[in-house]
Amino acid sequence: MEKDQTENSAIHLTEDHIKAILMDIFLAGIDTSAITMIWAVTELARKPTAMKKAQNEIRSCVGKKGKLTENDVSQLKYLKMIIKETFRLHPPTVLLLPREAASQLKIGDYDIYPRTRIAVNVWAIGRNPDIWDNPEEFIPERFIDSLIDFKGQHFELLPFGAGRRICPGMNMGTAVLELALANLLYFFDWKVPSGMDIDMEEEVSIAVGKKEALTLIPVKYNIREDDETRHC
Ligand code: HEM
């Protein structure tokens, strides 16, 4: 970045800018994606039918190629539903970033005065029974015929926020998640150790992750002779 700077650059970046950009990527970008990945695998481990369905989709798409690319991932419809459903139940930034009312307004029965700090509880919105059927249950299929997406246009599902302060790393975060999750599901079957219950307690912090580490046994998937590469 520093090397690309010239006298005539439209934007002049100092070393402090570069440090801040890197800090943003590490603080805002890594925990959130890692936490979402852990919740997705946790939910799938608790719902083996959904895990199997996702693996069938991925394996029949990749076939004997033995390698997943971003092009493959763009075709994986069920995987994308799993990610949406994970964001609904486990948005890592549960209260988004705080807002401040610029002027007097009314939200429902509440009068909000200027400069009031407002937190949007997207965790609660994602579990609101007035919006979602069986809200506590992990059901990726609920998105089959639904137009609801998480890009800030549908207020039922706001894991990345909305408006001018929407997460600028949304596309990168989603791409990383899709590719990493697809790889984990393609290369391994995941078993819950016998006699172990999966704990769902959350660890309250800026990004809300799983309190207890997730322990699963990976079983390497062997590509079969009859696996065909289908263009999915
Ligand atoms: C699963 C992945 C991610 C989730 C769920 C997520 C979620 C969020 C949320 C909810 C906000 C606040 C938006 C609001 O209040 O309206 C935010 C802000 C932000 N995110 Fe992300 N994020 C993710 C990945 C990333 C990545 C990969 C980067 C950078 C590489 C990133 C950089 C940022 C930055 C810089 C802000 C502050 C933006 C501002 O204040 O204007 N995020 N993110």
Automatic annotation (TrEMBL):
Q: How does it sit in the membrane?
A: Single-pass membrane protein
Its ancestry begins with: Eukaryota, Viridiplantae, Streptophyta, Embryophyta, Tracheophyta
Q: Where in the cell is it found?
A: Membrane
Task: Write the record's keywords in alphabetical order, separated by commas.
Answer: Heme, Iron, Membrane, Metal-binding, Monooxygenase, Oxidoreductase, Transmembrane, Transmembrane helix
| Family per similarity comment | Belongs to the cytochrome P450 family.
The record's listing under InterPro entries reads: Cyt_P450, Cyt_P450_CS, Cyt_P450_E_grp-I, Cyt_P450_sf, Cytochrome_P450_71
Q: What is this protein called?
A: Cytochrome P450
Return the SUPFAM superfamilies for the record.
Cytochrome P450
TM ranges: 20-42
